[in-house]
Amino acid sequence: MLQILLGAVSLGLLWAVMTIGVYISYRILNIADLTVEGSIVMGGAIAAKAITSGVNPYIAVLLAIFGGMAAGLVTGLLHTKLKIPALLSGILTMIALYSINLRIMGKANISLLKIDTVYTVFTDMGLNDVYAVIALGVICVLALICVLYWFFGTEIGCAIRATGNNPQMVRAQGVNTDTTIIIGLVISNGLVAMSGALIAQSQRFADVQMGIGSIVIGLASVIIGEVLFGKYQFFKRLISLALGAITYRVIIAFVMKLGMPANDLKLFTAITVAIALSVPMLESRLKLFSRIRKGADKIVGD
């Protein structure tokens, strides 16, 4: 049981990087960006191809981030300059990335067995594979949270946050919202690609199908983090995203331990997200019902 829990935590930390990226597009920019399903694969594809070509694993992750940022840039330009709806822009980029990722890898998957990865440094210290992933995952997540907290406190960061809340007000202040949207999508997909690179090296292979359903997983982690750990000030909210990703993976691990077929995981995730998204509506309905009931009781009492 402990090994299952540790495995879920290690994988949750890697997906937490992707969850933070999804949060930037979905919550901050208020855009459901489906580019994620292609950029996470691109991150794994670039990293795997670079590592098997002799590139240092850490440089390979950096290259993967640049690849994801390029994907986000394309989506941003399609949306802001060509005025294609955000959802459709993401779908177009996602479809294009399938072919691009195949060209990058040259085949459907690349094996990373018996090749040094970013985790090799930690395994050389005596840690086993799971603890090595957890160690690097914690470092990456904490570093990202600190950097993003600083960045979104700067002038451009605040402008990006304001763009998602009230673009008309931001434009009235003289800020180019096209630029802030593009920057937000670039950062978002860069983080998603970074997550893909780390996940590919953790599972020791990159596959062109590894991104299927990733947007739902990211949304599930965001929602779980917000529902369970609340919506606090920005720094704590970033931490809740990481905790949400870990919690989601722990839930999946225990559900599979109880005997759920692996083929049903996507269905389970979709149902989980649907329930989580409906929580605010259910709460408002319950509050409305409670007020009506109190009003009725008061009338009866009078």
Q: Structural class given helices, strands, pairing?
A: mainly alpha
Sequence stretches where pLDDT stays below 50 over 5 or more residues:
none
Per DSSP, the total helix count is: 12
**What does the main sheet amount to?**
2 strands, antiparallel
Task: Provide the helix percentage.
Answer: over 70%
- The Rg value, from CA coordinates, equals 21 Å
> How many individual β-strands?
2
Report strand order across the widest sheet: 1-2
Query: Which geometry do the CA atoms define?
Result: globular
Order of helices and strands: HHHHEHHHHHEHHH
Straight-line N-to-C gap: 59 Å
Strand-residue proportion: under 5%
Overall pLDDT confidence: 89
Explain this structure to me?
- It is globular, with a radius of gyration of 21 Å.
- It has a two-stranded antiparallel ribbon with strand order 1-2.
- The chain is mainly α and 302 residues long.
- It is 78% helix and 2% strand.
- The chain has a domain at 2-212.
Write the layout of secondary structure elements.
Blueprint (H helix, E strand, L loop, with lengths): L1 H27 L7 H17 L4 H24 L5 H20 L3 E3 L8 H5 L4 H23 L3 H11 L1 H6 L4 H27 L1 E3 L6 H16 L4 H24 L7 H37 L1
Antiparallel strand pairs: 1-2
Helix pairs in contact: 1-6, 1-9, 1-10, 1-11, 2-3, 2-4, 2-9, 3-4, 3-9, 6-11, 7-9, 10-11, 10-12
Briefly say what this structure is.
With 302 residues, this protein is an all-alpha fold. The chain has twelve helices and two strands, in the order H-H-H-H-E-H-H-H-H-H-E-H-H-H. Helix content is 78%, strand content 2%.
Features:
mainly alpha, 2% strand
